[in-house]
Design goal:
mainly beta, Beta-galactosidase, Chain A, domain 5, 16-stranded antiparallel sheet, two-stranded antiparallel ribbon, 3 helices
Length: 275
């Protein structure tokens, strides 16, 4: 398992594509860096404009959950699922981050939810959350409004993205930040909800139930695979990824959830592969 070193004091920079995992709900997907930053998400569908786009431009939006001191990080998936696990190790403790999107078939409301479960497994960790959405491929900085349950970001067209959290939040110039010290055994959820009219308490999302549901869905789906020979783990992961990239309303598979990335470094083919 490859490890990565990060220092929150460094200015935002591009990461290698190997430092990303993917989560999704078969309507859209998000790329989660090993540093805890969601750097690409088009909401609510694959072909929607990006809300978090710092994969392509460091100023085009991100949602970060990370320690506030230097840390080592590595990523893996829970077996048989598209639940992404990122672990951060600092000099004072270890924190585990689980990222997932609920699978909601036949959805009629244009919404998308991203769940981020934070659990301290050893010692204590100073945690920071940075909520910096940029609508329309980074062109629009939404208005940020804080309330007792988190933050609501709104643009002039009435599009909204809310962040629900139990952590104390402050509004800065174009972004929101939350910081807290968590100790071993403590856990909390951070929920990003596209299209919500208001910020809801985290408890209303029934986060643990959502996690159980999404685990059950992915495992039940992939366990139907009849193959049990060599390389099953790799084949299983490929199937799960293809299912994640299948647009549920039509059954079409996107070539990639991203755009403007070359097929190989320095190559000329950097089209929009979402279509």
């Amino acid at each position: 398992m490859k490890q990565f070193q990060f220092d929150p004091g460094d200015p935002p920079d591009f990461k290698s594509l190997g430092a990303y995992g993917i989560i999704g709900d078969s309507r859209t997907a998000a790329l989660v860096g090993a540093d805890g930053s969601i750097d690409w998400a088009c909401l609510p569908d694959f072909d929607s404009p990006s809300v978090f786009g710092s994969l392509l431009d460091p100023t085009a939006g991100r949602l970060v959950v990370r320690p506030s001191s230097p840390y080592t990080a590595w990523q893996r998936y829970e077996r048989g699922t598209n639940v992404l696990v990122t672990e951060f190790s600092t000099s004072s403790g270890t924190v585990r981050l689980r990222d997932f999107m609920p699978y909601i078939p036949h959805r009629t409301v244009p919404t998308a939810e991203i769940y981020r479960r934070v659990e301290v497994v050893r010692g204590k960790v100073d945690l920071e959350v940075i909520f910096e959405p940029r609508f329309d491929y980074g062109l629009v900085t939404p208005e940020m409004e804080r309330d007792d349950y988190g933050v609501r970001a709104t643009d002039e067209e009435g599009q909204t993205l809310v962040l629900s959290t139990e952590l104390p939040v402050e509004i800065r110039d174009g972004y929101a930040v939350a910081r807290a010290t968590l100790h071993g055994g403590q856990e909390t959820y951070i929920v990003s909800d596209w299209g919500a009219a208001n910020v809801h308490p985290v408890a209303t999302y029934q986060c643990d139930r959502r996690l159980w549901q999404v685990r059950t869905f992915w495992r039940n789906w992939v366990d139907r695979m009849p193959y049990h020979g060599r390389y099953r783990d790799a084949i299983e992961r490929s199937l799960l990824t293809l299912k994640l990239l299948t647009f549920e309303p039509t059954g079409a598979i996107v070539a990639a959830p991203t755009m403007s990335l070359p097929e190989w470094p320095g190559g000329p083919r950097n089209w929009d592969y979402r279509y």
